[in-house]
Amino acid sequence: MERVRRASHAGSWYTNNARKLDEELDGWLRAAGLTKSPDVRAVIAPHAGYSYSGRCAAYAFGNIDPTNMFSYTYYDKSHGAIHKSIEALDRMGMEIIETGNPDAFKQYLQEYENTICGRHPISVFLSMLKHCSTKIKIGFVRYEQSSQCKSMRDSSVSYASAAAKVDTPAEEEKD
């Protein structure tokens, strides 16, 4: 039995009538009168309830050409459990971060398009370490997922913790 989450803000931030909501959204987009552009990659729009900011937001969203969708990778069930695939991709990134190689991390992000929260500060940190006179070793100490995705309708966020320590040669550790 598939469950659908109830729209908690329907009737307050926007109408709880689906037909009326469609009419409002379409009306605001038509009134904006913008030409959709395949060149648009992002918009900045208010995200208060539609009843408050829908008209203004339509001027941002009206630029988006819905036929020019972002790229995605199709998930084939033969790849195993979704949450395991997510973990494998995350751990690959974690291993690359542990190498301290900013170029390898950049290549990983470009190749796999994993949306790692904090990827920009991590990249800056790795670049800084590359030029640091003190040898630093990064080690991940914990990995978790907010939920284990079992279907394409599920969602999950991954969390990881690491520590960056001065890399002490084995001989010094004995003293």
TrEMBL record:
* NCBIfam families listed in its UniProt record: AmmeMemoSam_B
Give a Pfam family name: Memo
Describe the family membership recorded for this protein in Swiss-Prot or TrEMBL: Belongs to the MEMO1 family.
Would you say which domain of life the source belongs to?
Eukaryota
| Region Disordered, residue ranges | 152-175
Q: What is this protein called?
A: Protein MEMO1
Q: Which PANTHER family match?
A: PROTEIN MEMO1
Native species: Oryza glumipatula
| Compositional bias ranges of the Low complexity kind | 155-164
Transmembrane parts of this sequence: none
